[in-house]
Hints:
Blueprint: E1 10-16, H1 20-33, E2 38-44, H2 50-58, E3 62-66, E4 68-69, E5 72-73, H3 74-83, E6 90-94, H4 99-107, E7 112-115, H5 121-213, H6 218-244, E8 253-255, H7 257-274, E9 277-282, E10 290-292, H8 294-311, E11 316-325, H9 329-337, H10 342-352, E12 355-362, H11 369-372, H12 392-402, E13 406-411, E14 417-424, H13 429-439
Parallel strand pairs: 1-2, 1-3, 3-6, 6-7, 9-11
Antiparallel strand pairs: 4-5, 8-10, 11-12, 12-14, 13-14
Helix pairs in contact: 1-5, 5-6, 6-12, 7-8, 8-12
Magnesium ion (MG) binds next to helix 8.
Amino acid sequence: MYPLDPDVDSIRVLIVEDDEDDVFLIKELLKERFLNINITIEHVYSPEPLSNLFEAAKNNDICIFDYRLGSLHGLDLLKKMREQDVITPVIFLTGRGDQEIAVQAFRLGATDYLAKSSLSAEQLFHSVCYSLNLSKEEGQRRHAEKKLKSSHEELILAHEELKKSMSKLQTVQNRIVVSEKMASIGRLAAAICHEILNPLNIISGHVQVLKMERAEEKDLLQDLSSINEEILRIEKIVNGLLKFSRKGQMDLAVACVHQELESVLTIVEKEMNLQNISVIREFDDKLPKLNIDCDRIRQVFLNIFNNATHAMPDGGVLIVRTSFVQYPENQLKENSERRHSRADYINDKLVEFPHVKIEFADTGVGISKDAMDKIFEPLFTTKPEGKGTGLGLSVCHAIVEKHGGSIQVQSEPSKGAVFIVNLPVNPPKETAKNIEEEDGI
Ligand SMILES: Nc1ncnc2c1ncn2[C@@H]1O[C@H](COP(=O)(O)OP(=O)(O)OP(=O)(O)O)[C@@H](O)[C@H]1O
Ligand SMILES: [Mg+2]
């Protein structure tokens, strides 16, 4: 026995039946039993056109299909309807009960099956109630499935977000490690440099004395000159290291980046042209002036130009591009809310503050994956002995950091390299204060 759901106060029934007497009978039987229910019955003789029938099925709570419908078989109709994802419950009617047809109808998605020969009001009532309950449960199941699917999709999205945040965190952590490594290398380098310079001065003094005392011994003089050359080379390296760890005063002044770039290019461009390297300027004419230490920033540019020249022994192109980057107010607010510690601050600062971006893109030999991790480390060089100290980029890194900026590189072997220097229009006060505390500026 299947009682009617107490919530149901109206039922819409679609009858697909080509025999008028049968339609009359079904209508009467329905009305007889559903006394207190508002029952609306729609009837069609022919299932065609199918699109109209499916639309009508969707608009009704239940369908009653005859097994024989002119040219179309009731089972075919049911199959096509389910293929079109029309899920309205269907009660299947045949002349006399036939078990085989019943099984096929259930397989194709019929909700119930009745024989016209023994059809009664009670039977029809229970079949309709049963079908409606089943349909309600099916609806609830589909709804739950849909919710589960959307929760699953949300979960995937959240997982993706988490993955992105993790990789961002990893990048920030790597940068912190690099910054801390640089700071401790700097302190160590300063201590070692002073230890080396003292005995080096003494050795140099002795060499000068020997040169004067034994001026007539030509072979010895040659050896002494070689020793002197090596002393000068050591001095150059040690002084470079000292610059990297320098605690000197920052001499900030308002300056135009283009002028600073041009003043360095005046020195290096001729040499570059001789080496078949052309320099292309893509300067943003709306670039604001910056508050920078000009000498040190020129030193950064000089090293990048020299490196690019060295990376293009057979000639090439160096593009120097400048641009002003400023983010919209709302984005700035969001970013500033994320700012907690100095580490966050340092890594986020260029997103928050208006800054000038200077890109140096060369068409040179590029940088290998292994070297990419090391190029900002002091003393890392791929240049032949005596050609490079490997201090250039580590000094650049220290200088740019002191300005509250950042220096990045993008490169692949044999695909050139792009060095990007970002400098804030004004070094943020917080950074300046921290630098003062840390470096005693
Ligand atoms: N534009 C570039 N293309 C390819 N490799 C580069 C480029 N710039 C830097 N490198 C690599 O980074 C290394 C380190 O550069 P860095 O400026 O620190 O030292 P260096 O140029 O070797 O020595 P120095 O600066 O004392 O002359 C270089 O030896 C080179 O391998
Ligand atoms: Mg260099």
